[in-house]
Amino acid sequence: MLITVSGPAGSGKSTLAGNLADALDYEHVSGGDIFRDLAEDRGMTPLELNKAAEEDDQIDRDLDRRLRDIAAEREDLVLESRLAGWMAGEHADMKLWLTAPLDARAGRIAEREEKSVEQARTETEERSESEAQRYAEYYDIDFADLSIYDLAINTARWDPEGTLNIALNAVDAYDAAVDEGKTPVEGIRYEF
């Protein structure tokens, strides 16, 4: 099974993806890690690389190509990135979307990156605007369109364990439906 975990910065993608991969004994691939590695290789911060990507579309296209290739080639995988659901396409068995209010996300980012909440909020807003513009330009993706996702979870309402339990219940329900010979219906989405 290929499960994607998508959402904006600070929504808890990495936490859920890692926990989900551990619980299912799956591999975990993070687009954020790939992007941060690309930034470090170029001597830039992720925000600086994001800004550079506004002028050099090859940065995004290389990352996205890697994500599509991984989705096409691997099974028993949790693939996590802002666009994992879009990039995995028909290869994904289940697409999860995580979200949280900006203040909650900025607080998480500030703690993780050891910066002020104000700085994290400003950078997160700038990064989100930059990415949304590029996604629309490159792929005609509306980042606010959640219709491709099977499940949306507001991680400000649930701690990491609660979020994991919701995701695992969805995976169990999917597996049970497939075992009964039922075909999961696209376009049905649940929000928690």
TrEMBL record:
GO CC, one annotated term: cytoplasm
Binding-site positions, ATP: G7, P8, A9, G10, S11, G12, K13, S14, T15
GO molecular function: ATP binding; dCMP kinase activity
CDD domains in alphabetical order: CMPK
EC number(s) stated in the UniProt entry for this protein: 2.7.4.25
UniProt KW keywords: ATP-binding, Cytoplasm, Kinase, Nucleotide-binding, Transferase
InterPro entries, A to Z: Cyt_kin_arch (IPR011892), Cytidylate_kinase_dom (IPR011994), P-loop_NTPase (IPR027417)
GO biological process: one example: pyrimidine nucleotide metabolic process
Region Disordered: start-end pairs: 111-131
Keyword hit for DNA-binding: no
Family: Belongs to the cytidylate kinase family. Type 2 subfamily.
Protein name stated in the entry: Cytidylate kinase
Species the sequence originates in: Haloarcula salinisoli
Taxonomic lineage: Archaea, Methanobacteriati, Methanobacteriota, Stenosarchaea group, Halobacteria
